[in-house]
Write a structure and sequence with these properties.
With about 425 residues, the protein is an alpha/beta fold. It contains 14 helices and 14 strands. A six-stranded parallel β-sheet has the order 3-2-1-4-5-6, with helices on both faces. Strands 11-10-9-12-13-14 form a six-stranded parallel β-sheet. Strands 7-8 form a two-stranded parallel ribbon. Helix 7 crosses helix 9 and helix 11 crosses helix 12. The chain is globular, with a radius of gyration of 23 Å. The protein starts with a strand and ends with a strand.
C-alpha cells in the first residue's frame, strides 16, 4: 500500500505524517515553497514540530520502507494506490461555495489514476458533492469508470488548528466508501493509525452530511450567544456573569459569544445552505445565524466607538491597538479571520490602528488582507486597546501600561485581569 496525500496544509500534513509512521506516503502540494519548508523540517502552520517532521521525512520517493516524501511533482505519486485529497473548500464574496481547489485536485489525481486505485476526500462539502462534482472529474480526466476501474471514499477532516491535545490520531474518524467492500477497506486504513477509532457511515452522503452539520451546529449556538450578548448589553448585564450562572446546570452548553472566523465554522454552513436551497428549502435558522456572526465585527467596532465617545475621546486620528488578528488563540491561522471585519469598520471612522500579533506572519497578513502587523509588543501609548484574540502571551501583559491616562480597554474575549472598560 502506498498513499498519496494531496494538499499539505493544516489537514494534509498532520495526516501524512501520521500515515508515514506505518506506510509509504507521498505528500503533494502545488506550493513549491511549502514543500521545500517541509523538506527542511519546518511547518509554518505549527501543527507539527521540527522533531515530529524529521522523524518521518525521507529524502527520496524511491526510498524503501516507511516515511513521508514531499513533492510538487505529481508524477512522484504515480505508484500510489490510495489518494487522499485534503484541499480547502472556501466560499466567494457572495458566500457561494467555491469548488475550484477540489476540482483541480481531482483533475491532478485523474491524470495518474490507475485501475484499482481508491480516491478518498477529506474536504468539507455538502451531501452529494463527492459523487456529483468530484467523481465526474476523475472519470473524465482518467478515462476510467467509477466503481468498476476505480473507487472513492469520504472521511471528513476534524483538525482543530492549534489544538495540541486533540491531534489527528486522537479524534474519532468518520469513514465511508463508494461500495461496501471499499468502505470496509477505507475504514480499515484509517483505523490502522487513528487510536481514537473510526465510525463507518453507511454512505458517502451520510459522512458528508455529518461533517457539515458539526460546524453548522457550533455556528448556530455561537450566534445565539452573540445575540444574547447584544441583549444583555442593552440591559446593562455582564454576559460572562450570566453564562457562569447558567452554566451551573448540568446540561447547559458552554458556548461563548465572539468573532466566528476560520476555515470551518464561518464557511461550512453555506455549503449546506446552498444544497438546501437547490432542493427548494430555505434554511432560515442557518442563514440567520450566519448573518448574526458575520455582522459581529461591525457591531463590535460600533460599541468601541460609542465607548470612546462616552470617555470623551476624539475618534478621528485616535491611536488604537488591536491585540490579535488570527481567527483563534495560540494559532497562526489567519484564514477568514473576522478580526479584519472589525478593523476595517474601525478604519472607516478614520482611527489609526496598530495590529500586534506574535503568532501571525506579517507577510502573510499583508498578502491576504493588505494590513500591516507586528510580532513585537509596541512601546507607544494608545487611546484604545482592544483584546481581539486570547493568545497566552497577552495574559501576562499589563494592558494598563499601554493606554493613555484617559484611554480605554475593550476586552472582547473577557480574559484580561483587572479593570476593563468594555467587553462583549
Amino acid at each position: 500500500m502506498k498513499i498519496g496525500i494531496i494538499g499539505l496544509g493544516y489537514v494534509g500534513l498532520p495526516l501524512a505524517a501520521l500515515f508515514a509512521n506505518k506506510y509509504d506516503v507521498i505528500g503533494f502540494d502545488i506550493n513549491e515553497r511549502r514543500v521545500e519548508e517541509i523538506k527542511n523540517g519546518k511547518d509554518t502552520t505549527l501543527e507539527l514540530t521540527g522533531m515530529a517532521l524529521e522523524k518521518v521525512l525521507k529524502k527520496t520517493s524511491v526510498a524503501k520502507g516507511l516515511g513521508l516524501y514531499c513533492t510538487a511533482d505529481i508524477n512522484d505519486l504515480k505508484n500510489c494506490n490510495y489518494f487522499i485529497i485534503t484541499v480547502p473548500t472556501p466560499v466567494d464574496d457572495t458566500k457561494r461555495p467555491v469548488f475550484t481547489p477540489l476540482i483541480n485536485a481531482s483533475k491532478t489525481v485523474g491524470e495518474i489514476l490507475k485501475k484499482g486505485d481508491v480516491v478518498i476526500y477529506e474536504s468539507t462539502v455538502y451531501p452529494g458533492a463527492t459523487e456529483e462534482i468530484c467523481i465526474p472529474v476523475l472519470e473524465k480526466t482518467s478515462g476510467l469508470v467509477f466503481n468498476k476501474d476505480f473507487y472513492a471514499g469520504y472521511s471528513p477532516e476534524r483538525i482543530n488548528p492549534g489544538d495540541k491535545l486533540h491531534t489527528v490520531e486522537k479524534i474519532l474518524k468518520v469513514t465511508s466508501g463508494s461500495t461496501p467492500e471499499i468502505a470496509k477497506k477505507v475504514d480499515e486504513l484509517y483505523n490502522s493509525v487513528i487510536t481514537a477509532g473510526t465510525h463507518l457511515a453507511p454512505t458517502i452522503k451520510v459522512a458528508e452530511a455529518s461533517k457539515v452539520i458539526e460546524n453548522t451546529q457550533r455556528d448556530i449556538n455561537i450566534a445565539f450567544m452573540n445575540e444574547l450578548a447584544k441583549i444583555f448589553h442593552l440591559l446593562g448585564i455582564d454576559t460572562n456573569d450570566v453564562l457562569k450562572a447558567a452554566g451551573t446546570k448540568w446540561n447547559f452548553l458552554p458556548f461563548k459569544p465572539g468573532l466566528v472566523g476560520g476555515h470551518c465554522i464561518g464557511v461550512d454552513p453555506y455549503y449546506l445552505a446552498q444544497k438546501a436551497q437547490e432542493n427548494g428549502y430555505n434554511p432560515d435558522l442557518i442563514l440567520a445565524s450566519r448573518r448574526i456572526n458575520d455582522g459581529m465585527g461591525e457591531y463590535l467596532s460600533l460599541q468601541i466607538i460609542k465607548l470612546m465617545l462616552k470617555h470623551d475621546l476624539a475618534v478621528k486620528d485616535s491611536k488604537v491597538l488591536i491585540m490579535g488578528i488570527t481567527f483563534k488563540e495560540d494559532c497562526p491561522d489567519i484564514r477568514n479571520t473576522k478580526v479584519v471585519d472589525m478593523i476595517r469598520s474601525l478604519q472607516d471612522y478614520r482611527v489609526k490602528t496598530t495590529i500586534y500579533d506574535p503568532w501571525a506572519e506579517p507577510e502573510e497578513v499583508q498578502q491576504e488582507y493588505g494590513l500591516t502587523t507586528t510580532q513585537k509588543l509596541p512601546s507607544d501609548l494608545y487611546d484604545v486597546v482592544i483584546l481581539a484574540v486570547a493568545h497566552k502571551e497577552y495574559i501576562n501583559i499589563n494592558v494598563q501600561d499601554l493606554i493613555k491616562d484617559n484611554g480605554v480597554i475593550y476586552d472582547i474575549k473577557g480574559v484580561l485581569p483587572g479593570k476593563t472598560h468594555g467587553r462583549l
